[in-house]
Amino acid sequence: MLRYVTTNEGKVREAREYIECEQFEYDYTEIQSSDIGTVAAHGAREAYREAGEPVLVDDAGLFVDALEGFPGPYSSYVEDTLGIERVQRLVAEEETRRAAFRCVLAYCDGEDFAASPDPVDRENRALAAAGDEDESGAGVPVKLFEGTVRGRIVPPRGEGGFGYDPIFEHEGTTMAEMGVDEKNAISHRGRALAKFGEWYHERSE
Ligand code: ITT
């Protein structure tokens, strides 16, 4: 069974609308990088080494236009330290409240992948060749699936979802005002999961 690597139950609830999976509460090392794809790929290698079974890591972030993409890869830290209401007040001072949510799903099962529009991360191969490999499964390919949704930062509304959902509005509705199906239909994660689900089902046939 595919292991969905996260400590966040909200993510698993959304993922189960697309794929059969088991939550794997493994706290992988979040390396310092401005690219959430690189963070997710590194995490997937580490989680695969730990689980020894196919894993899917889900790394997401909120990128605010007026704050040059902040909090981005630091979204989790910023939610825990400032909280979403302070993020909203910070953005309210700015000229534009536009923002994007991005999600990268990183899949690893120890095998290599055929070429397709979705990229394969082989970063650690280069590191390994340079004699700089770490112990997180250097050389194992990781396939990446990305989804993005654009919206606006607004004062919090709604009781559903998790994280920044109450302050992220898409076409007049915050993601916390949407049901799981509605959020999946437009969200960064829903888009990444739709791509992954299609690819994964073909791969398993
Ligand atoms: P894991 O790393 O264990 O998966 P996490 O919640 O820390 O759990 P991320 O690092 O991917 O996951 O999330 C970064 C931040 O963005 C964190 O504060 C989440 O609550 C938030 N977040 C992620 N997906 C979200 C979504 O769909 N809607 C609102 N906030 C989200």
Describe this structure in words.
This protein starts with a strand and ends with a helix. A hairpin with a 2-residue loop joins strand 7 and strand 8 (173-174). Helix 6 (180-186) packs across helix 7 (188-204). The longest helix has 17 residues, at 188-204. The protein has helices spanning 9-15, 36-51, 75-81, 84-92, 123-129, 180-186, 188-204, and strands at residues 3-5, 22-24, 55-64, 98-108, 120-121, 142-153, 168-170, 173-174. The protein has 205 residues and is of the alpha+beta class. The protein has one domain: Maf protein. The chain has seven helices and eight strands. The model has no long low-confidence stretch (mean pLDDT 92). Strands 1, 2, 3, 4, 5, 6, 7 and 8 form an eight-stranded mixed β-sheet that branches. The structure holds inosine 5'-triphosphate. The site of inosine 5'-triphosphate (ITT) has 19 residues, from strand 3 and helix 3. Inosine 5'-triphosphate binds next to strand 3 and helix 3.
What is the string of helix and strand elements?
A: EHEHEHHEEHEEEHH
Q: Measure the end-to-end span.
A: 14 Å
Shape: globular
Second-tier CATH architecture: Alpha-Beta Complex
Poorly predicted regions are: none
Q: Rg, please?
A: 17 Å
Tally of individual helices: 7
What number of structural domains do the residues give? 1
Query: What is the overall pLDDT average?
Result: 92
Small-molecule binders here are: inosine 5'-triphosphate
Helical fraction = 25-40%
The strand count comes to 8
Percentage of residues in strands: 15-25%
- CATH topological fold name: Maf protein
| Derived structural class | alpha+beta
